[in-house]
Design a protein that fits this description.
single chain; 62 residues; mainly alpha; rod-shaped; transmembrane; membrane; Flp_Fap
Length: 62
């Protein structure tokens, strides 16, 4: 085999492309999940702290 035929076979070979694409998809989804969990945790902290303060105020008035 000559060097040009090896190079042409290498350029036409796409067997590893799908594995790389799936890896990129997993990486992007992982970043989105981590960011979403952080935002959800912040929202839950705010929700419960807000609810606790409202409950404390309601009990203090009666």
């Amino acid at each position: 085999m000559t060097m040009t035929t090896l190079l042409q076979r290498f350029l036409k070979d796409e067997t590893g492309a799908t594995a790389i694409e799936y890896g990129l998809i997993v990486a992007v989804l992982s970043l989105a999940i981590v960011g979403g969990v952080g935002q959800a945790a912040n929202a839950l902290k705010w929700l419960f702290s807000d609810t606790n303060s409202q409950l404390a105020n309601a009990f203090a008035q009666h």
